[in-house]
Design brief:
248 residues, alpha/beta, 6 helices, binds zinc ion
Length: 248
């Protein structure tokens, strides 16, 4: 069995180590007004381990912090990104970029990335990462959509799923929902049947004003753990503090 280690950096930013090949997801390392991780950032970009590649689901600042990631020294590291983000990645100094739409694939070192559908405020993809017999689903900050049934049929054995859970709504857009909530994430775990599901995308805060005027969201992962026990009892829900490795 090949080793698999998941370590959250913060928010949806995580290190996924598949037998020694490490993929960084949705980089976020800095703060600005109305964008606060709400939890420690486990690792600054200059201290990241050597990466096999970087996956970026969409262009929102809290998932695509290329200004901070420019401190990462290996400029040849390959990126797999949602189609349309390539120019932004190249402008940050990284030349090796593959742009993807759902079901297209890219190779990040020995890890195969298959883009999967997503639905959000802006164009987005989720991802399935595979090396040898190990498979990881990365849910970025998508809504729950029927297309995820196809992920389950194409990838019947998923070891770990990283699932967003904060049910983010945008108050000025009539409380439009743009991220799945904890119950929907548990429902997605029922569909994907991973051995382990790790909640992501929940400590983030817009600050006192941003949360009162713009954002509406749930910031605790406890509800997800309860929901998964009810809806997907075959999946183990595991909360990870930033920097706390989960070895599988
Ligand atoms: Zn977003």
């Amino acid at each position: 069995m090949t080793g698999l280690t998941i370590t959250r950096v913060c928010h949806s930013c995580a290190l996924i180590d598949m037998a020694g090949a490490t993929i960084l997801t949705d980089p976020w390392f800095s703060e600005k007004p109305a964008y606060h991780p709400g939890e420690p950032i486990a690792c600054p970009p200059g201290q990241l381990p050597p990466l096999a590649g970087v996956f970026i689901s969409h262009g929102h600042y809290d998932h695509c912090d290329l200004a901070a990631l420019a401190a990462y020294p290996d400029k040849a590291v390959p990126f797999a990104v949602k189609r349309g983000l390539g120019a932004k990645v190249r402008a940050a100094g990284f030349a090796n970029v593959t742009e993807l739409d759902p079901w297209q694939t890219a190779q990040l070192g020995p890890v195969t990335i298959t883009a999967a559908p997503a639905k959000h405020l802006v164009p987005e993809i989720t991802a399935v990462m595979q090396r040898a017999e190990r498979t990881v689903f990365f849910g970025a900050d998508t809504l729950h959509i029927p297309e995820f049934a196809e992920v389950a049929s194409r990838f019947p054995k998923i070891d770990t799923a990283l699932l967003p859970i904060n049910g983010l709504r945008i108050r000025p857009l009539l409380n439009k929902k743009v991220v799945m909530d904890a119950d929907e994430a548990a429902e997605l775990a029922r569909i994907l049947r991973p051995s382990v599901a790790v909640p992501i995308h929940y400590r983030f805060t817009g600050g006192p004003l941003g949360d009162r005027l713009i954002l509406k969201h749930e910031r605790s992962p406890g509800h997800f753990i309860e929901a998964i026990a009810k809806r997907a009892p075959g999946t183990d829900g595991r909360i990870l503090a930033p920097g706390e490795p989960l070895r599988l």
